[in-house]
Design brief:
Elements lengths: L7 E6 L6 E2 L21 E5 L6 H4 L31 E5 L2 E5 L9 H14 L5 E4 L3 H13 L3 E5 L5 H9 L3 E4 L5 H12 L2 E2 L13 H16 L4 E5 L4 H15 L8 E7 L4 H8 L23 H10 L3 E4 L1 H13 L10 H8 L10 E5 L21 H10 L5
Parallel strand pairs: 5-13, 6-7, 6-9, 7-8, 10-11, 10-13, 11-12
Antiparallel strand pairs: 1-2, 1-3, 4-5
Helix pairs in contact: 2-3, 2-6, 6-7, 7-9, 10-11
């Protein structure tokens, strides 16, 4: 673990960059000085950028996972890793790439975040961690807690998919399915009464953990190493932490003199909610919405956070909203390219397709695919109809598939 290599120096408010805090303890409920009862502003981690050696940090390295590679530009990594990161960039057509985050240890992008948040819990001496999650975040938090020898409490929804429930329990997490609206209030009580370290949101509008999105910066670093700075990145968006992390990673590359531009970062939300799109349309730092029916449960969020506004605004991106049909079409396209994704994870490609032909004038485009199709609703109930062990029956099935005349 490369804790001594971290060049992190403190925490800074996104609501007012002049407001700063020490690096410890990690702020898990946003900026206490700029927030109000209606709006909570996140904080980000600041670094001694003048001490970063870009040539050595971004030099070619063996392809293997582990955020240790990027330790100088991350908070201290006190918790052991699981080989997260170093996910492949798959070209599905000329100039269009998919960053496949399902190759992470628990099959989602959340592993990058939870390596950092669990490290914060270890560094703070917490007796365990707690999280409110519909699936990916909880599974990842449970895995990293187990790796660090910490107990983990996961508040999830009453309709948690059986495969996700089994996933959580496999790591020894205490799984508590409760009504959706009760998750955050109960999480706050667990944190206040038992001292567990929260690795998900505690505030009215989303702030989340100060250290978590720092792990997502490594997505940008890896894209840069593979194809340079793309013209645009399309990001499946729930609360906007991944969106912000990708933007900040590219912004740091520019700050370090490795590039002179940042790609357009497009948020890709499900149309059944779309709180970030609403916030941007109304000129607000965050927004609350009523969530409609959608099978893209991982990104159907009732509230947004200021991080997403910053990423879209500062990059010149767009806030896109997508219905389930367009998500399913993108999911099918990815499957035909050999990538099995969760419906929510296909939002990046769906966002690209919603804009028509990709603009490759400034370089390639990258669509993030955040998690495996294993996480989808109903996966464990799908069964292929058996076929009789006779040639005529097999031939009938092959003809139906267009493989025989």
């Amino acid at each position: 673990m490369a804790t001594a290599d971290s060049l992190a120096t403190g925490q800074r408010s996104l609501g007012d960059p002049d407001v700063g805090y020490p690096l410890w303890p990690p702020l898990t409920a946003g900026c206490p000085r700029t927030g109000t009862e209606e709006i909570s502003y996140p904080v980000e981690v600041d670094y001694a950028y003048d001490k970063v050696d870009p040539a050595s940090l971004f030099a070619p390295a063996p392809t293997r996972g582990g955020l240790e590679r990027w330790a100088p530009l991350l908070p201290p990594l006190h918790a052991p890793g699981l080989g997260e990161g170093a996910t492949p960039l798959v070209e599905i057509e000329p100039g269009v790439y998919v960053k496949d985050e399902s190759r992470n240890p628990t099959w989602s992008h959340k592993d990058r975040l939870n390596r950092c948040t669990t490290s914060a819990a270890v560094g703070a001496g917490a007796p365990g961690i707690a999280v409110a999650s519909s699936g990916n975040h909880g599974a990842s938090a449970a895995a990293y807690a187990a790796r660090a020898g910490l107990p983990c409490v996961v508040f999830t929804g009453p309709d948690v998919p059986p495969n996700v429930d089994a996933f959580l329990n496999a790591y020894g997490a205490v799984v508590l399915p409760v009504p959706w609206e009760a998750r955050w209030p109960l999480l706050r009580q667990v944190v206040e009464r038992l001292g567990l370290h929260p690795v998900s949101n505690l505030t009215t509008t989303h702030t989340g953990h100060a250290y978590g999105p720092e792990g997502y910066k490594t997505v940008a670093y890896e894209i840069y190493q593979d194809v340079g700075v793309p013209s645009a990145v399309f990001v499946p968006t729930g609360y906007g932490e991944l969106l912000f992390g990708v933007w900040k990673g590219f912004a740091e590359l520019r700050r370090l003199g490795l590039t002179d531009r940042v790609p357009r970062i497009h948020s890709c939300e499900v149309a059944a909610s779309g709180p970030l799109a609403r916030a941007i349309a109304l000129g607000l730092p965050a927004a609350h919405v009523t969530v409609g029916p959608s099978d893209a449960y991982s990104i159907a969020s009732p509230v947004s956070g200021y991080r997403g506004v910053v990423a879209v605004r500062e990059s010149g991106g767009r806030a896109l909203t997508l219905d389930d049909r367009s998500l399913a079409e993108a999911q099918h396209e990815l499957s035909r390219a050999g990538l099995w994704t969760e419906l929510s994870a296909a939002a990046g490609l769906a966002g690209l397709r919603s804009l028509g032909e990709p603009d490759l004038s400034d370089g390639p485009v990258v669509c993030l695919s955040t998690s495996s199709g294993f996480k989808d609703l109903g996966v464990g109930t799908r069964r292929t109809e058996p076929v009789a062990p006779e040639w005529d029956a097999v031939l009938h099935r092959l003809r139906a598939a267009g493989l025989a005349a």
